[in-house]
Amino acid sequence: MAARAIFDEMNGHDGRSRHAYRVLQDWLKSAPPQLLEHRREEAELFFRRVGITFVVYGNVEAEERLIPFDIIPRILSGEEWGRLARGLEQRVKALNLFLKDIYSQRDILRAGIIPPELVYLNPYYRPQMQGLNLNSNIYVQVAGIDIVRVDDQDFYVLEDNLRTPSGVSYMLENREVMMRLFPELVGMQRIRPIENYVDELLGTLKSVAPASSPWDPTVVLLTPGSFNSAYYEHSFLADRMGVELVEGRDLFVRDEMVYMRTTEGPKRVDVIYSRIDDDFLDPLVFRSDSALGVPGLIAAYRAGNVAIANAPGTGVADDKAMYSYVPDMVRFYMGEEPILKNVPTWRCREQEALSYVLNNLHELVVKEVNGSGGYGMLVGPHATKEACENFKARVLSNPDNYIAQPTLALSTSPIFTEKGLAPRHVDLRPFVLTGRNGVRLVPGGLTRVALTEGSLVVNSSQGGGTKDTWVLSE
Amino acid sequence: MLSRDADSLYWLSRYVERAENTARVLDVAYRMASMPISYSGLETNEWESALITAGGIDDFRSAYDEATPENVIEFLAFSEVNPSSIRNSFDTARQNARSVRSALTSEMWEAINSAWLDLRRYKARKIKVEDLPRFLNLVKEASLRYDGSAMRTMLRNDAYWFSRLGLYIERADNTARVLDVKYHVLLPQDAPVGGGIDYYQWAAILRSVSALVSYQWVYHQNLRPWLVADLLILREEMPRSLAACYGALSRHLDDLSHRYGTSGAAQRQARATHARLTNRNIEDIFQHGLHEFLQNFLADNNRLSLAISNQYLC
What we know:
Chain A is of the alpha+beta class. Chain A is built from 14 helices and 21 strands.
């Protein structure tokens, strides 16, 4: 995969413009030279104004946390999106079936497809969920699946985010900005709308309400509070959905029912869209030192009197070791071949894989199964010989704790720089909603872009930015 | 709405109003202190009087030796040990605003946020006494902007009503305290009219609630103490009077009870206090003692705040 030239989503491998980008390219060519610079400045001005709303939720230093925005859209054809959407739907369905299975029958463990210790020793496995009959049978209502591509054909899943995926507010705001800044360009082609995401989210949440709730169930968004880094998004989504943004202290449980404290007295809550980690949901069940949660919430949940989305315990399906089994889940539960590819992953727990990894360390990325944020990780091509040797020893001492993947030549998409357009690496996080009536996707997602030349790191904490993502109608 | 959100709105408005009131008190002290001695009266220390009016004289005494202009300005405007200093009031207001961001209009948020950012530029001790008016103007304008944007942009629903309740409770408290601190200069009707000193004291009271010109429009005569009290206690057309504050409090509490379909102690108490204010005349109040009247009022006002809190905010 790494051997070929890097695939650019506008210019392909060979510099010939790809179909989805034609209108954009023609427009860029005909646009007066100053125009883009002017629009970029306007975008900056706009974001400084919107920036005020970011400062709202952040602290004094919040201005620095503004995520840079690039004005050149990233474009997918209708056909590409169709394929991607089918793959995402299939994958998220399988993940939901897997969670249902491991918290009840455990067929997949009995069939010997997934080693039981990967489930039971997983720090995100929640025994409290065992044997619980969820009214909707849905565990992951909102998934953020990170997608990359390396060529014209294939999409690869980099990571499944099944706990509290964030970023959808940027997706929505980026579109709003583009519509304001480039109305003529937006009007030249048929871009599929994404603005209905919030409606779909609310519909999804209502659809999983407990059977006992009224015909129009009460939904709340549970946030850790205004000091959380994603508070802006929590507040944005609650506001757009028209539901209350609650903290743990706004809720209480009486007779296994959940209520919120309102100016009109206690009001029954049917569905909680939780943006809090499992650990902090209920101090009686999880971390007893948590001040964020609601005592008794899990008892109410187990009694079937409230729905929590996503369900506690979904993290067991999104760690790096489990990731490598998702294609097997698709085959096992759905009897289908997976549409989306996994990045090839060597599980060091398997003897053959281990010896391959140890012999090819210099061209692999080796990761701890539960690591995140770049810790406990070796990037072979960039590591010294000594570092490789040291890491080898660590892997050998506990092979189960490691997986390895090839370094990917992520695709690029052009961004606007002082020197004109320049290619930068991108990924894509589409948001997949699953309710009682099936899977809903808005066409697009959050495109993250590494703004530094050559960099593969798209994380906003490390100099990444975002772009609007356009999916064209067929 | 969530009780916590209503609570935040209520206190947001109270603290903005409090910052403005403190700024007015400082403004009067500044004016009085810069008057020729023969006009302003030598015995009184206007800066100390400002401390008494704004409240917190005990906190002040435990932190400072002497009521010098610099000390009083620092304490009332910037001090961190004074929970009601202008800076602390805006800090608390902004904290409350942040936690109910989605219940505010963007105009309201910007009024709070930009005032907060402006205030951060002023550092305690660095402000010279002669720069005080400019600083106080900033505070008053921030409050006007917040209040104006609330009036012009908020939906008339419970969020609006709770923010108004906070404002009027705080305003009533302030007007009553301004009057009470100065009650000794508000002499009974038949007392001989004093000289220049009294005149400036009364004028100062009126100015601290921006009512000096209003007084002339309402009474068309020279400053008379019982009329000053009449204006600030009983006149509904005077927007900072106790009667006007309680008119608004009863009205907005009724709005809430209509919307929610129930009423409680808060509605009853507000109506009772409002009735006491509309059925009295000023001679009657003076006869029974202005100080006692104001002390009773302040206690009632506190009880109403507590009743609102118990009924809606927790």
